[in-house]
Amino acid sequence: MKPVITVQNMRESDAYTIREFVPSKELMYRAAMGVYLATEWKGTIGILVGAGNNGGDGYALACILADRGIPSTIYRVSEKFSEDGKYYYDMAMEKGVQIEMFRETTDLSGYDILVDCMLGTGFSGEVRGLYRAAIEGMNKSGAYTICVDINSGMNGDTGLGDLVVKADLTVTIGFLKTGFFLGDSYRHTDKLVVTDIGIKLLTEEYWLCGQAPWNLSNALELPGDLLPEEAKAQAWEKGSIVCIPGKTPLVTDGQKVCFIGEEPETILSLGE
Questions:
Q1: What is the pTM of this model?
Q2: CATH classification code of 2-206
């Protein structure tokens, strides 16, 4: 089983790990390496970065690609940096990575791969400004889209968002977040994987049965009036994730079924 945690738990666990065990720049590099190892990098690559550490992951990823002779173009959706993000931005500049400011007129349609490193797990609310234009551009591009840690625009706790990047692959950092299994998240991510970067989890909260990758886009959307036992039976029969809009979803790997509380409060295993 894999831990599923809230954003606050992730934030506190991350801070604890940095304070006691691993420097933050090393964790950022590990996150970027996890993304690099999660897929095959072919064709033209664009990396969209925001102001925070999620953007820093993108700069670090560009450095890793450059070290392997794989060119990429970074689009900065904000002029701001986190401290660690600035460190890897400077490194990317030294390595000759092409870096441009994203504008509302920027055309992303020519890329084979686009990487979303814009808004991290701390985001909530309505997407505004250039971030909104960037998400719309990514969703219209037709590129193979990779989200780093979380799909930009999605609330990491609830899975809700007014405008969310639609990903072929989401590589979440450290641990699964509750938002991936609540709200409308299954509409936004095809394949979900976790990269372990050595964060020490402070609090155990929820658990998910099954092995990665989880194919969220294969979720069965069932009628809202379906009874829980009927939904459980469907999950067992189809061997797929089951989501009931407006209600608590059930998730399954075909062998074990888990229940995720609406708020969420608990996850209970309903099988051997």
A1: 0.86
A2: 3.40.50.10260
